[in-house]
Amino acid sequence: MTCSLTEPALAKAHKFLLRAQPPALEGEPLQTRQAALWQDFRVFDTPSDEWVPAYVAAALAETGESALATEAARHWWRALVSRDVPALGYRAGSARDADSTLWACRLAHLLGEQQHPAYARFVAFLRGCIRPDGGLATFPSARALAAQFPSQPRIRQGHGWTCSHVCVTAAALWLPEIAAIPDVTRFLVRAQTPEGYWNPYWWADREYATALAIESLARQQPDHADDGAQQAIAKGAQWLSGFPPGASAFRLALRVSGLAQARLSAFIPPLNELMELQLDDGSWPASARMRIPPLDSDHPDRRWNWDEHGTSFASIVLDQERIFTTATAVRALTACSKM
Q1: How many alpha carbons fall within 13 Å on the CB side of residue 155?
Q2: Mode of pairing for the β-strands spanning 289-292 and 46-48
Q3: H or E element in which residue 56 lies
Q4: Contacts with 17 (C-beta within 8 Å, 6 or more apart), sequence order
Q5: How far is residue 109's CA from residue 318's CA, in Å, rounded to a whole number?
Q6: How far apart are CA 324 and CA 317, in angstroms?
Q7: pLDDT in tens, 188-224
Q8: Within 10 A of 282 (CB to CB), how many other CB atoms are there?
Q9: Contact 20, 38 (CB under 8 A)
Q10: What is the rounded CA–CA span in Å between residue 120 and residue 105?
Q11: Domain-by-domain residue ranges, the chain?
Q12: Nearest 10 degrees: CA dihedral of 304, 210, 170, 307?
């Protein structure tokens, strides 16, 4: 039943994402192939050309049904690891970060590329981002950020952009190498709020961290999971299911994904809403709202005066190309098809 509902929408979304990438320039070095990568958002007036492609390619590889989608995902894996770098970043030349790197690792798993030399480097980088409390920081050191933002006030190690981030930890826990570290699971379970959601650092919508936390906790084997993991999944799913209609495509996709990963049929009403929002070209309206906290901000959820039109610190940036929202919807439809 679910497959019959999602297959046409998923096929249209694949076509949009495959059209969104210009023809691949095989054999060219990554630096000259930048324009061929999926690019979205404009942080500091610059689109992402490493993090977004890793995320989108992982979404396509996850479907496992379209040969074209899988080949596109393989192409971007090859492109992203074509340089000898320890990790990936928001864009080429930016500070290396755990969020971009973990999506490349997830892509590698989905493609069976864990034996690639880059994979070991990437996992080592992620391990280096684990803080004493068990959470993963997006950036491993304040020094790298000081080099990239010399005009900004310096931050102390373990604060702001270098402290534990729930949304990054939730996504990274999906990886077996990270899930094998018990402190990471314990951190994520502890980070859940009494209401049942998880607070993201980089996102304006709580559904992002909540859906990813449910997905990663549900992926763990029950005998290896923290004792509180199953209760956390149930509590998170209850929070996701308690919303009235009318959310954005991005938030709906995350609700659908989280509820489907929790194996609950409550995903069907938001799924119907999500499919009604799909545009004729196969995409969904841009609604992924990424926020850029000041470098030293430990609790961006407490800030109220975000600039919804800026691209710098204290701004909320939209995926204006609709690529990130569409990839998130693809992940949601894929989760439903596996129910």
Answers
A1: 25
A2: unpaired
A3: helix 51-63
A4: 38, 56, 60, 69, 72, 282, 323, 326, 327, 330
A5: 28
A6: 12
A7: 999 999 999 999 999 999 999 999 999 999 998 665 5
A8: 22
A9: yes
A10: 9
A11: 2-337
A12: -20
Closest by Cα among 43, 101, 99, 47 to 77: 101
CA-wise closest residue to 42 among 237, 303, 292: 292
What tens digit of pLDDT does each residue of 264-323 get?
A: 999 999 999 999 999 999 999 999 999 999 999 999 999 999 999 999 999 999 999 999
Residue 98 · residue 139 · CB < 8 Å: yes
Burial of 258 (0-12, 13-18, 19+ CB in 10 A): buried
Among 139, 197, 125, 205, smallest CA distance to 168 is for 139
Tokens of residue 124, six digits? 């080592």
Q: Which residues pair with 316 in a beta bridge?
A: 291
Burial category of 215 from C-beta neighbours within 10 Å (exposed 0-12, middle 13-18, buried 19 and up): buried
Torsion over CA: 20, 25, 30, 32 (sign): negative
CA dihedral 257, 54, 22, 287 (to 10 degrees): 40
pLDDT of residue 227: 63
CATH topology for 2-337 is Glycosyltransferase (1.50.10)
Residue 105 phi/psi, 5° resolution?
Answer: -65, -40
Check the CA dihedral 159-239-253-334 and report its sign.
positive
Q: Which of 166, 263, 161 is nearest to 207 (CA)?
A: 166
Condensed to tens digits (0 to 9), the pLDDT of residues 117-156 reads: 999 999 999 999 999 999 999 999 999 899 899 888 888 8
